[in-house]
Backbone:
């Protein structure tokens, strides 16, 4: 239907390549002929490192594909992966929903930058003020679907997203770029790389400022409260707030076998989407400062048969408030039981500051003919070293009395009235893995990791993978894995919160997963992948309504979910200029606790991307992403949320041997009304008509290499 | 010093005044004799990632050439005047050309300076230089290290590869192995020969996929690879991209060390504008690339060939 309606447009695109084809430089031809293709040259010249062949269902997206996707943010890249849907919560922070595993704070996904987790202790996610991530520094992203705790430890649960940044061997010289577009969005970047006397360096700075898309929502939590308390404080219908400023800086130095990296991700003036508690808040702003540094030693030939890798890393992260966060707007009573309105609104400014230290040592042993052994140990110390909160409601810790409406903000930091206490966590681990070449074409990988946590004890997670090279062009993998997710400090210790309360007795969530994966290459230009999976997710931590009339919810290990599904992917290089990638995912998951279909994650997804890269410097790509069949939560009476399709179209032209590049990027070309599910509520969902995504956006981009 | 000269070079393109100013300023800082010595590298301006190959070769040259080095990047096909000026100004002892276009341009100028050519695969007329085509001996010695059990090697070659075949034959003969070669001049002939070889071959044989106009047809390659997989026959190739397609191993130029060899050649041929009689030297400096999946299928464990320096394991 959709493709039919826009048939003319697609036809034009199909005809475009021959119209603008032209010749290629003689020397490039010779090199291309000699080395094969650009992809191989990238491998041969060390630009791209071949992937580790850990048996898992994994997708890799390279910088070249990121250009084809014309991503302005990492989420636009991740949305192209089968079995992964990028949704968002009320605050418009991303929810990476893998294979039907979908929760509001999304701690079931481990996101790493160069192998170092970004996970925050407070919510186990990437922070309330995540603020997106620019993509110019990214060399590739490796995405593992399914559990990875036997290698990565905690939180490698539903999936792992490892972002690998560019190195000095990959880029050289200095380049700059600018992008400007819809919602007054400005991006800039400057990168430089090279080497001096064996010291490789890479430095990049990326900046972003946007007013954010301002789609409207028709009702919010205050609309509901207005009806119950007879007030008219709600700002709905009104616009969501997705403004924000971001600066990312990265430095990498390499010398022999040592690599040092340092970086910062500063987020300021971040809008809170549809509000911190589903009530529109056009003024509230959050901020975050993340600093990281790591030192790596990697020696694959430490001795003839032993390779060694050692890493020490530091990550500091904060969730800060730039401008007062209104849980409910001016004139709200904050509760149907309170007759007195808050003239300034109900304000709560929670701030959290964290530090994370990690050190790991791993070794590979090649001394046995049919075995590849790997073992490692590691230690982690994480610390919420500062918690700050100012608010104008709840109990005043000095007087012990309720803070009356109209009071100025009271600093409740470090008291039982604050939302969280400072706390720390230690974790040590040991792991071992063996790849055993059982017979020609048969390989068995077994891995086991033991983790000890200072807060909740021990956990052991195995994985087994049997890989069969069935034919010269067919590989079959059978995989089993277990994983765990550590309860976050919020789930364990949140207090004095008007909505959610922690529980110190929580156990980790656990997941068991079975997968069968086929990789088939019927011709050299066509690759087909088929994955089948089944998982059992237990002890799901959910905020369950308390029986008292306070309206609060306490974290409990109550949920249980099981699911199964398939993922299909095809990559077809039609000719030297034209390629197509498509994937389809289907999953069916059941909420065992409530005997209902699992909610919010799409049961079906379809993605297709066609790319034309001509030697004349034109690069045209068209992609479509269809999201289908998202169920409501079992007690949500709303009709299922509408399916949607977004189409993006990008055209790029390089000049002067790629020194100058211009691009026109269009996101959501046909202006689809795409929405992500808003949470259910009692007696009714606060935001009834779901969370609108950005409509059509257009960007112009210029890149210049010096 | 090099920086100033590069600015001069680009300055000419933009405006003579600016160029002249820089030139004068440069002259103040450069000792007088610097303008009449050393090596001039001419290379084409190609896009990424191809440019990385030239950069790496140039780095290797710099490492092995002791005197001053200047670079000239061909910006367009009509760069003759700029190149001429550059040579007149710099008076190099020897010129190094990278790629076909640079060699063509340098030859057109009919210079009295010796030319050393690199980053090309073959030339119609003799030239001093190193070919990008790896020496057959290097490929075969890798084969015998990875798969010492091989007794016989089959190869299908184009009719113009006699020199390489002879070299390979005598190398194998010295090690008590045989090379069975077939010459072809069409795709059909090549397909027939490969089919015959596949039928004949046993696990102590290896098939060498040589480069050639009629030899790289994807359908032939698929046929060979499928049959070789079933019969567990070692297939190796002169074309490194075949490794991704399932051949056991291949080699490709180690650009940095190839640059080193070129630097060495340049040193030997300084101020010797003799007419070259030799063809390009075969490439000795290569990286080894191995397909792990195929290697394990053949029972060759990567741990066992750990002594070899495998540059890439696909």
Residues:
């Amino acid at each position: 239907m959709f493709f039919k309606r826009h048939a003319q447009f697609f036809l034009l695109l199909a005809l475009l390549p021959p119209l603008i084809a032209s010749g290629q430089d003689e020397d490039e031809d010779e090199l291309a002929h000699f080395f094969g293709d650009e992809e191989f040259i990238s491998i041969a010249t060390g630009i791209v490192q071949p992937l580790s062949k850990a048996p898992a269902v994994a997708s890799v997206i390279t910088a070249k594909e990121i250009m084809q996707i014309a991503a302005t943010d990492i989420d636009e890249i991740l949305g192209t992966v089968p079995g992964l849907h990028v949704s968002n919560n009320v605050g418009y922070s991303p929810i990476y929903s893998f294979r039907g595993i979908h929760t509001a704070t999304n701690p079931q996904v481990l996101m790493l930058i160069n192998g170092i987790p970004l996970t925050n202790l407070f919510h186990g996610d990437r922070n309330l003020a995540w603020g997106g991530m620019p993509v110019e520094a990214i060399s590739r992203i490796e995405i593992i679907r399914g559990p990875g705790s036997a290698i990565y430890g905690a939180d490698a649960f539903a999936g792992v997203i490892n972002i690998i940044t560019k190195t000095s061997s990959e880029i050289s010289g200095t380049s700059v770029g600018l992008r400007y577009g819809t919602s007054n969005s400005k991006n800039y970047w400057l990168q430089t790389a090279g080497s001096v006397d064996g010291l490789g360096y890479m430095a990049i700075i990326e900046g972003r400022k946007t007013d954010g898309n301002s789609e409207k929502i028709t009702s919010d939590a205050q609309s509901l409260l207005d009806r119950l308390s007879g007030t008219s404080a709600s700002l709905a219908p009104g616009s969501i707030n997705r403004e924000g400023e971001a600066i990312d800086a990265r430095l990498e130095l390499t010398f022999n076998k040592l690599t040092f990296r340092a970086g910062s991700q500063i987020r300021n003036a971040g809008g809170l989407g549809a509000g911190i508690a589903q009530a529109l808040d056009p003024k509230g702003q959050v901020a975050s400062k993340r600093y990281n540094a790591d030192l790596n030693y990697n020696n694959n030939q430490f001795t003839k048969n032993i390779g060694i890798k050692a890493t020490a890393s530091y990550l500091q992260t904060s969730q800060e408030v730039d401008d007062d966060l209104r849980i409910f707007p001016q004139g709200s009573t904050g509760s149907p039981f309170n007759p007195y309105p808050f003239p300034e609104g109900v304000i709560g400014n929670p701030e959290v500051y964290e530090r994370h230290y990690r050190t790991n040592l791993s070794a590979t042993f090649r001394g046995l003919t049919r075995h590849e052994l790997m073992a490692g140990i590691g230690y982690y110390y994480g610390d919420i070293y500062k918690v700050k909160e100012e608010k104008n409601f709840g109990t005043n810790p000095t007087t012990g009395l309720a803070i009356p409406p109209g009071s100025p903000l009271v600093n409740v930091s470090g008291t039982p009235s604050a939302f969280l206490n400072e706390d720390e966590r230690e974790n040590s681990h040991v792991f071992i893995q063996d790849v055993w070449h059982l017979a020609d074409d048969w390989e068995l990988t077994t891995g086991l990791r033991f983790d000890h946590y200072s807060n909740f004890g021990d956990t052991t997670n195995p994985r087994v993978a049997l890989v069969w090279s069935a034919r010269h062009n067919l590989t079959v993998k059978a995989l089993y894995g277990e994983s765990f997710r550590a309860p976050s400090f919020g789930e364990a210790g949140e207090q004095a919160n008007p909505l959610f309360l922690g529980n110190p007795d929580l156990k980790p969530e656990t997941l068991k997963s079975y997968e069968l994966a086929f990789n088939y290459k019927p011709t050299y230009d066509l690759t087909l992948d088929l994955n089948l999976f089944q998982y059992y997710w237990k002890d799901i931590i959910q905020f369950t309504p308390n029986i008292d009339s306070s309206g609060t919810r306490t974290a409990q290990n109550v949920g249980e979910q099981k699911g199964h599904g398939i993922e299909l992917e095809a990559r077809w290089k039609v000719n030297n200029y034209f390629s197509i990638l498509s994937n389809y995912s289907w999953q069916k998951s059941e909420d065992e606790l409530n005997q209902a279909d699992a909610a919010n994650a799409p049961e079906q997804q379809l993605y297709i991307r066609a790319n034309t890269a001509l030697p004349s410097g034109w690069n045209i790509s068209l992609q479509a992403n269809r999201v289908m069949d998202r169920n409501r939560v079992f007690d949500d009476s709303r009709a299922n949320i509408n399916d949607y399709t977004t189409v993006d179209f990008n055209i790029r032209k390089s000049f002067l041997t790629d020194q100058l590049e211009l691009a026109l990027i269009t996101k959501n070309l046909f202006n689809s009304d795409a929405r992500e599910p808003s949470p259910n509520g009692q007696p009714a969902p606060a935001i009834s008509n779901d969370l609108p995504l950005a409509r059509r956006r257009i960007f112009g981009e210029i890149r210049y290499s010096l | 010093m090099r920086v100033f000269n590069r600015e001069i070079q680009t300055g000419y393109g933009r405006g003579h005044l600016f160029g002249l100013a820089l030139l004068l300023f440069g002259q103040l800082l450069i000792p007088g004799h610097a303008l009449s010595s050393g090596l001039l590298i001419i290379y084409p301006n190609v896009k990424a990632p191809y440019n990385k190959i030239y950069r790496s070769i140039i780095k290797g040259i710099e490492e092995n050439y002791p005197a001053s080095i200047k670079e000239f990047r061909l910006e367009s096909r009509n760069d003759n005047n700029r190149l001429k000026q550059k040579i007149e100004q710099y008076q190099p002892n020897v010129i190094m050309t990278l790629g076909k276009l640079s060699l063509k341009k340098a030859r057109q100028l009919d210079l009295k300076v010796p030319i050393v050519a690199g980053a090309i695969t073959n030339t119609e007329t003799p030239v001093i230089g190193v070919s990008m085509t790896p020496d057959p001996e290097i490929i075969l010695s890798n084969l015998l290290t990875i798969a010492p059990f091989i007794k016989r090697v089959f190869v299908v070659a184009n009719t113009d590869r006699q020199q390489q075949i002879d070299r390979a034959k005598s190398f194998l003969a010295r090690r008590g192995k045989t090379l069975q070669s077939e010459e072809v001049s069409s795709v059909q002939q090549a397909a027939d020969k490969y089919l015959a070889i596949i039928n004949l071959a046993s696990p102590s044989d290896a098939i060498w996929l040589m480069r050639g106009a009629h030899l790289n047809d994807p359908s032939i390659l698929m046929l060979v690879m499928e049959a070789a997989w079933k019969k567990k026959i070692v297939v190796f190739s002169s074309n490194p991209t075949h490794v991704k397609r399932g051949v056991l191993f291949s080699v490709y130029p180690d650009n940095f060390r190839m640059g080193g060899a070129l630097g060495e050649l340049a040193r030997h041929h300084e101020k010797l504008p003799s007419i070259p009689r030799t063809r390009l030297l075969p490439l000795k400096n290569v990286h080894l690339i191995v397909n792990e999946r195929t290697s394990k299928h053949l029972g060759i464990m990567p741990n066992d060939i750990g002594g070899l320096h495998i540059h890439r394991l696909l």
About this structure: The longest helix of chain A spans residues 7-19.
